[in-house]
Amino acid sequence: MPRLTLADFDYALPDELIAQHPARERAGSRLLHVDGNHLADLRFVDLLRCVAPGDLLVFNDTRVINARVRGRKATGGEVELLIERITGPDTAIAQIRASHPPRPGTAIELAAGIQAVVQSRDDRLYALQFLGTDALDCWLDQHGQVPLPPYITHAPDATDADRYQTVYARDPGAVAAPTAGLHFDAAMLDRLDAAGVLRGFVTLHVGAGTFAPVKVDDIAAHRMHAERYSIPQATIDAIAAVRARTVRVVAVGTTSLRELEASAARGLCAGSD
After folding, report:
1. Is 15 among the domain residues?
2. What is the average pLDDT score of the chain?
3. Smallest Cα–Cα separation from 53: which of 199, 158, 180, 156?
4. I need a surface site. Which of 14, 65, 100, 174 has the fewest CB within 10 A?
5. CB of 83 within 8 A of CB of 175?
6. What integer pLDDT is reported at residue 273 of this predicted model?
7. Per the domain annotation, does 22 fall within a domain?
8. Structural domain total, the chain
9. Are 83 and 203 within one domain?
10. Are residues 139 and 156 in the same domain?
């Protein structure tokens, strides 16, 4: 394969073409169907034309947490935390945006009298201890914000809290939504069931690294961030059964796809961290 550079991926995307709000209906978006060299411009409600009875759709059931937190340093400087991963009842790993990178020992004042104290740093990620709570997940539910992508410019509201979450989200831990799944609503899932299309679930907690820019010209030298995933035995069994027939396993979005690829490389193991 030819060597790819960062410049190979440059293209102009006008700001006015970046939707700032979702379509009125989840299934109201457009759908591009690629069949060999044939392209068809469809609507998402036409999905049933693209799948067949017995096909297995694999969904990522991760649930987005309120991972964005705002606070202040003792000097008064504003700080923004983006939680990457909750590691304990009062600890987490996070990205920090501040005028100056905080050093170990720095205390960041947060809502409800909570302090986040910097323990250590590894590149973009900081290990934090949250003083004043032993239920960080519950505190984030109350005081954190929906971590909308950086290309969405408005402050999150109640609508975002609902729409930036799949209707089948189950396992909290992601800081970004598996966006391909956002288009499915209950009616579409019912239609798939009625058509004999099967459903399986995996869990991949999308990390804050998904927003990280590529900073090297040689794409092969880019350091990818790690993410946690798990595949239940029921999904493994369903994949094996489908592959024994002349039907397809269809990954819903890139998060499900890369989890299936990683697991296949390991012999389709039951899970990994």
Report:
1. no
2. 92
3. 199
4. 14
5. yes
6. 39
7. no
8. 2
9. no
10. no
Q: Which residues make beta-bridge pairs with 96?
A: 81
Strand pairing class (271-272; 228-230): antiparallel
What mean pLDDT comes out for the span 45-69? 96
List 24's β-bridge partners, or say none. Answer: none
| Whether 234 and 157 share a structural domain | yes
Residue 21 covered by a domain: no
User: Within this chain, do residues 100 and 134 fall inside the same structural domain, yes or no?
Assistant: yes
Q: What pLDDT score was predicted for residue 110?
A: 97
Confidence of residue 263 (pLDDT cuts 50, 70, 90): confident
Q: Edge-to-edge, what's the strand order for the sheet holding 271-272?
A: 249-251, 56-60, 198-205, 228-230, 271-272
Token code pair at residue 98: 């501040």
Q: In terms of residues, how long is the chain?
A: 273
The sign of the dihedral angle between the CA atoms of 212, 215, 219, 220 is negative
Backbone angles phi, psi at 49, to 5 degrees: -75, -15
What's the token pair of residue 194?
A: 């009625």
Q: Tell me which residue of 110, 121, 184 sits closest to 145, measured CA to CA.
A: 110
User: Minimal CA–CA distance to 96: which of 122, 132, 75?
Assistant: 122
Encode pLDDT of 205-227 as tens digits: 999 878 778 889 998 888 888 88
The pLDDT > 70 percentage for the chain reads 97
Amino acid 226: pLDDT:
83
Domain check: are 242 and 197 in the same one?
yes
User: Domain residues for 234?
Assistant: 28-64+151-272
Residue 127 pairs with which residues in a beta bridge? 93, 120
Query: Of the residues 126, 143, 160, which one is the last residue of a structural domain?
Result: 143
Last residue of a domain, one of 120, 143, 166: 143
90: which 2 tokens?
């009062």
Q: Which residue has the higher pLDDT, 137 or 228?
A: 137
CATH number at residue 136: 2.40.10.240
pLDDT of the residue at 268: 59
Give the span between the Cα atoms of 21 and 102, in whole angstroms: 34
> Which pLDDT does position 186 carry in this prediction?
97
